[in-house]
Design brief:
The structure holds two protein chains of two kinds. By secondary structure, chain A is an alpha/beta fold. In chain A, 38% of the residues lie in helices and 28% in strands. Chain B has a single domain, classed as ABC transporter involved in vitamin B12 uptake, BtuC, CATH 1.10.3470. The chains are: A alpha/beta, B mainly alpha.
């Protein structure tokens, strides 16, 4: 049973397409990982799903076509996108950022949501009154993911959460993401360059090369293929 | 000493009006990154609407509330019809749109309401309030109305979801969409609010300077100076700037340059700020990564 089903999706920024007829699935509560080099179209895929770039093709979320909806309406349906560069509201406090995550629910269960999120990210509780722009890189990434959790989404799109962070922080972050995936029963579409750590989470892997899917299968398939393993996992 | 205090308090009253208009400028600047040159003329049209209502026999405070509501609608309409289609244009074209809007509104006001100077009533008694010697009751009333309005705005932006959403849009429109905020509606709301704030300022200043199509010219110059002085992206700075400019204007006019030349105070302040502290007192200096 698919939570997200992307078919023949093409997208670009006005100078020809970056993404060419891509097909991706995320199972309900599952984790699909998209791997690929810089410029392979991974970020564009996420942006196309959310309507942040011009796109053609079909995107079904929870059996509902969303490929013609504007970004904010897709978010309101329960798709939480943690964008490249984290997209925190730098001038607002940590708690205001979180509150905005829950914007689609109004005040409904706000306190419970804070409590849940602070359980995953106790560090954010200490920083709740601090301006988000003054948080460290790792904390900002946590805040971005926490904001997504606040919206009680059915699907989280994660754009390279490991980017620019120290390995220890990355490990901590991935442990929390795994936890969130399991406990919130939320589907995750994860885009990463750091293949090794992302694969541990995946139940399905897609390999992107210059805007096309060149491999689609379970993580074992990537691990089993020697040349792919060398290229993407480095061993 | 008496005369000095008189000038200071009188300056605070005018300053309250500058503070309101500067705040309206800042509110638009934060969501569009443009200075709304038409802010004063929007307030002018609002003041004419209020004047027409009052002349038609509507009680002052009813007319006041109706004008604020109508001005809100006018702000929303201007955003929808004029500004939104223009926002995709290059920056200089957008500046021209703002200036065009200013000219059109000003001409329309003259054409519809006439060019004669009208008096505009004050809702406050003509006797000084609380038997004080320094402030006419209208001046005290202006300060009071402004402070109430500022407090309401503060509560709105600080404590309501809608206010938070508006701040979010000013901070990061793209992320706002990602959490499901309907950004276009927030922009319209921002314009409506700033037009409503401007309307209050117009109705408060009109009894002092009289109502004619050029009423807002000098007032807006002080408001621009106030907004720049406080920092064009800082609401608190704009308010402080407004009161500062009001007092400075009166003191310079009385003791230094004389009343005829006191408008140059505003210009000097604008130039001074741009030269020595372009971000203003509380503004964030622009920084770019290269």
């Amino acid at each position: 049973m698919s939570l997200l089903s992307v078919q023949r999706l093409s997208a670009g920024y006005g100078h020809g397409d970056v993404l060419h007829e891509v097909a991706i699935e995320v199972a309900k509560g599952g984790v699909s990982v998209v791997l690929g080099a810089n410029g392979a179209g991974k970020t564009t895929l996420l942006r196309a799903i959310c309507g942040m770039v011009a796109r053609r093709g079909s995107v079904l979320f929870d059996k509902r076509p969303v490929d013609r909806l504007p970004t904010e309406e897709i978010a309101r349906l329960g798709v939480a996108h943690v964008p490249e560069g984290r997209g925190t509201f730098a001038n607002l406090t940590t708690e205001e950022n979180l509150r905005l995550g829950a914007y689609r629910h109004g005040r409904n269960q706000l306190e419970e949501s804070y409590a849940r999120v602070y359980q995953y990210f106790p560090r954010l509780a200490e920083r709740r009154r601090q301006q988000a722009g003054t948080l460290s890189g790792g904390e900002q990434q946590m805040l971005a993911i926490a904001r997504a959790v606040m919206s009680r989404p059915a699907l989280i799109l994660l754009d390279e959460p490991s980017f620019g962070l120290a390995p220890l922080i990355v490990e901590e972050l991935y442990r929390i993401v795994r936890d969130i995936n399991a406990r919130e029963r939320v589907g995750v579409l994860l885009v990463e360059q750091n293949a090794a750590i992302a694969l541990d989470l995946a139940d399905r892997v897609y390999l992107f090369e210059v805007g096309r899917v060149v491999l689609d299968g379970p993580p074992t398939q990537l691990r089993g293929d020697e040349s792919l393993r060398r290229t993407y996992l480095g061993y | 000493m008496e005369a000095f205090l008189h000038q200071v308090f009188g300056g605070l009253a005018n300053g309250a009006v500058y503070a309101s208009l500067a705040l309206a400028l800042v509110m638009i600047y934060r969501v569009t990154h443009f200075v709304n040159f038409a802010q004063g003329e929007l307030a002018l049209v609002s003041t004419y609407v209020a004047s027409s209502l009052i002349n038609a026999g509507v009680p002052y405070w009813v007319a006041f509330v109706a004008t604020v509501a109508l001005s809100f609608g006018m702000g929303v309409l201007v955003e929808r019809v004029v500004i939104r289609p223009a926002m995709r244009a290059p920056p200089l074209s957008i500046v021209i749109v703002f200036i065009g809007l200013m000219v059109v509104l000003n001409s329309m006001a003259g054409w519809i309401f006439g060019y004669d100077t009208r008096s505009f009533p004050s809702p406050f008694p003509s006797e000084p309030l609380f038997g004080n010697h320094y402030l006419a009751s209208h001046e005290l009333g202006v300060i009071g109305v402004t402070l109430v309005m500022l407090a309401l705005l503060y509560v709105f932006f600080r404590f309501t979801s809608l206010g938070l959403a508006l701040r979010a849009v000013a901070d990061n429109p793209e992320s706002s969409r990602l959490v499901g905020i309907r950004v276009e509606r927030m922009l319209a709301l921002g314009w409506g609010l700033s037009a409503a704030v401007g309307a209050v300022a117009g109705m408060m200043i009109a009894p002092i300077v009289f109502l004619d199509p050029s009423m807002m010219g000098a007032v807006m110059l002080y408001a621009f100076a106030a907004a720049l002085f406080g920092g064009i992206d800082s609401p608190g700075g704009a308010v402080l700037g407004g009161f500062t400019v009001g007092v400075l204007e009166n003191l310079m006019g009385t003791y230094v340059v004389g009343t005829e030349l006191k408008l140059t105070t505003a210009l000097a302040l604008i130039v001074g700020v741009l030269v020595f502290r372009p971000a203003g007192l509380f503004g964030q200096p622009a920084a770019a990564r290269v």
